């Protein structure tokens, strides 16, 4: 059923407008060049195809306890959201929308919602508490799941990392493995047999999968 909530795209436009009003011009230019480069590159050729088997990967929950993808999803169908980190305003926006408008419809269908990022567990806990999320938020050190799905973003380069540090963000310190590598924002629908049924990848990190798109994919799964 279509969702009447404001779209993530609308919120993203507001975030972009706010950033344009307060970020230094040179930082804006650097980020703008990055997003243009990512848009032009598009979705990677190696993205996992529907029908692929999704293997288990080791994860760490927001309390710092070891777990795994299969443990978190409890043998049930799942919607897995790969996001960059608590420092990313577009990620916060999307996960709030999913919590408010997607979590309940999924629960009614016995589908688990899980958010996965490469950040340290304390970042996952901050994400969960900051946005009042009632679903698992876990860390995937080394981006094992992103690599498996073929959605690992290439290195953004030192110019972008320097611009981020100007804003007080050091991605290498935020990530559990000490690298700058991040997943492309991705939503994957996986059935109870660990088979990938649908995947939506966003090379441009300022865009996200809408709630309605996920619900349409879920309806097709039935």
Q: Span between N and C termini?
A: 14 Å
Strand content: 5-15%
Main sheet, how many strands, which sense, barrel? 5 strands, mixed
Global outline: globular
Which strands sit side by side, in order, in the main sheet? 5-4-3-6-7
Enter the CATH topology name.
Glutaredoxin
CATH architecture: 3-Layer(aba) Sandwich
Low-pLDDT residue intervals, each spanning 5 or more residues: none
Number of strands: 7
Helix proportion range: 40-55%
- As a whole number of angstroms, the C-alpha radius of gyration is 17 Å
Task: Output the CATH class name.
Answer: Alpha Beta
Question: Descriptors for this entry?
Answer:
single chain; 222 residues; alpha/beta; Glutaredoxin; 5-stranded mixed β-sheet; two-stranded antiparallel ribbon; 14% strand
Give a written overview of the molecule.
The chain is globular and about 50 Å long. α1 runs antiparallel to α4 (89-101) and α2 crosses α8 (158-166). The chain has a single domain, classed as Glutaredoxin, CATH 3.40.30. It has 222 residues and is of the alpha/beta class. The chain has helices at residues 8-22, 25-41, 69-73, 89-101, 103-108, 121-130, 144-149, 158-166, 171-174, 211-221; strands at residues 58-60, 66-68, 78-82, 112-117, 137-139, 186-190, 196-201. The model has no long low-confidence stretch (mean pLDDT 94). The strands form two sheets. The chain has a five-stranded mixed sheet.
């Amino acid at each position: 059923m279509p969702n009447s909530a404001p779209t993530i795209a609308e919120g993203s436009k507001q975030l972009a407008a706010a950033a344009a009003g307060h970020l230094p011009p040179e930082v804006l230019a650097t980020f703008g060049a990055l997003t243009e480069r990512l848009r032009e590159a598009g979705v990677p050729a190696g993205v996992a195809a529907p029908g692929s088997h999704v293997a288990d990967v080791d994860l760490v929950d927001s309390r710092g306890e070891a777990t795994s993808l299969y443990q978190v999803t409890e043998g049930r169908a799942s919607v897995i959201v790969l996001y960059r980190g608590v420092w990313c305003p577009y990620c916060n926006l999307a996960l709030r929308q999913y919590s408010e408008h997607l979590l309940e419809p999924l629960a009614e269908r016995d589908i688990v919602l899980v958010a996965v990022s490469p950040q340290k567990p304390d970042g996952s806990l901050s994400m969960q508490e900051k946005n009042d999320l009632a679903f698992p938020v876990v860390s995937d050190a080394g981006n094992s799941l992103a690599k498996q799905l073929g959605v690992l973003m290439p290195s953004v380069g030192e110019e972008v990392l320097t611009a981020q540090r100007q804003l007080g963000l050091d991605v290498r310190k935020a990530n559990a493995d000490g690298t700058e590598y991040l997943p492309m924002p991705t939503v994957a629908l996986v059935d109870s047999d660990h088979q990938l049924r649908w995947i939506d990848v966003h090379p441009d990190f300022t865009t996200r999968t809408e709630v309605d798109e996920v619900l349409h994919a879920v309806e097709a799964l039935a």
